[in-house]
Amino acid sequence: MGRLLAVLVRADALTIFAWSALVTIGLAAVYSCTVDFQSSAEIVPSTVSRAVFHSQMTWVLIGASVALFCMLIPYRHFEALAYLTYAIAIVLLVAVLLVGDEAGGGRRWLSFGGLGFQPSELAKVALILALGRFLAARAERSPMVLVGGAVAFVAPLFLLVVREPDLGTSLVYPAIAVPMLFWAGVPARLILALVSPVLSAVVMFSGQQALGGVWPWVLYVIGLTVLLYFARLYIVQNLLLMGTNLITGLAIPLVWEKLQPYQQARILTFFSPSESDRLGYGYQTFQSQVAIGSGGLFGKGYLEGSQKGLAFLPERHTDFIFSVIGEEFGLIGAVAVLSFFLLLIARALRVAEISKRPFAGMVAVGVASYFAFQAVVNIAITVGLLPVTGLPLPLLSKGGSSMLVSCIMFGLLLNVSARWSEV
């Protein structure tokens, strides 16, 4: 007990405050989803069982316990076991494809003794630890070696999770890796060039869907060629980047054919919204926008959200929990959630800045990237700025695997903040 108190005293208090605030808001919002709604004429029973709230509370307690455990263990042990953790994550992801529970046309869960979890969530922690250990030795490695190593770590996770299929989660891995590469000293211009294949894919797809041709992508390739010429990269780097952009762009039609029908419909709805979409694949986004918009400045009041209470808003306790907060707490509540996430991310970056051990700084940056990417993407989905991907809002959305992993991230961050002066 004395050791725990000593570590807690040294841990960053603002990080603990931000985590506590987000978890509390999330529990309140999940509970609200389970309460019967009092309409003007009758009481409308909730379609979300009270057991959902009890389950979430249980996972919060489990997550808090695991966070304390992660905080107590000196992070040098996490560094020593980083590659083993990554290997275990790969094995679990392969096991999902072979013997995982099938639901909704895919395999994403493993069950042990009646308890199910998503290895794709645990793989986020494994990536941060393994990539952090690899990048921590940056002093003796060139930028291209660091980039190649990052690709080698990210690619297997990305491809295995895409195969489940879970496109939303698969995008988290490169989103974690890119900021870690920047923190490791890889030049920004090289990183921007490396993410250019994503832009190549977007331009190809947008041109085909909106303009019915590939000429925008051809112009993009010409422009990229000019930029790479003035960027003064090595010729091998230029050839690799151009080849990657060409392959990515030309592969988009093939990838599109491999997507599930519901995935194609969601993406098309995002790029070409119409009134009819409000009753089809665009229904969730439309109802979410109505819920958030109807909240106004101060919200309708706790437990008083009609979009939530009348079950117009699907997945309100999971992927669209932010919509419930916006409806019942208004703009004030939405800004509060964003502020707490910003505080958590800012403190993580501050810890990374002052940490004397490279691995500790890498872990803090990876944790910051995880919270930043998932929060931005989830909230952007709820307001209609991105297609629906099924990515949960960390610490708020209902989900055992997501809550557990978010708490592990929190514990790792506290661990680093309490031991920032160790070398």
What is this entry, summarized?
The protein is mainly α and 423 residues long.
What labels describe this entry?
423 residues, mainly alpha, three-stranded antiparallel sheet, two-stranded antiparallel ribbon, 4% strand, globular
Characterization of this structure:
- With 423 residues, the protein is mainly alpha-helical.
- 71% of the residues lie in helices and 4% in strands.
- It has one domain.
- It contains 19 helices and five strands.
- Strand 1 and strand 2 form a beta hairpin.
- Helix 2 (13-34) packs antiparallel against helix 3 (50-72), helix 5 runs parallel beside helix 7 and helix 17 (321-354) runs antiparallel to helix 18 (358-382).
List the helices and strands and how they pair.
Blueprint: H1 2-10, H2 13-34, E1 37-38, E2 43-44, H3 50-72, H4 75-80, H5 82-99, E3 101-103, E4 106-112, E5 115-117, H6 119-135, H7 143-162, H8 167-170, H9 172-183, H10 188-194, H11 196-211, H12 215-231, H13 235-258, H14 261-271, H15 283-294, H16 306-309, H17 321-354, H18 358-382, H19 400-418
Antiparallel strand pairs: 1-2, 3-4, 4-5
Give the termini distance in whole angstroms. Answer: 25 Å
Number of domains: 1
Query: What is the overall silhouette?
Result: globular
Number-wise, the strands total 5
Structural class assignment: mainly alpha
N-to-C SSE string, H for helix and E for strand? HHEEHHHEEEHHHHHHHHHHHHHH
> Mean of the pLDDT scores?
83
**What is the overall number of helices?**
19
Largest sheet: 3 strands, antiparallel
- Specify Rg, calculated over alpha carbons: 22 Å
| Percentage of residues in helical conformation | over 70%
Strand order, largest beta sheet? 3-4-5
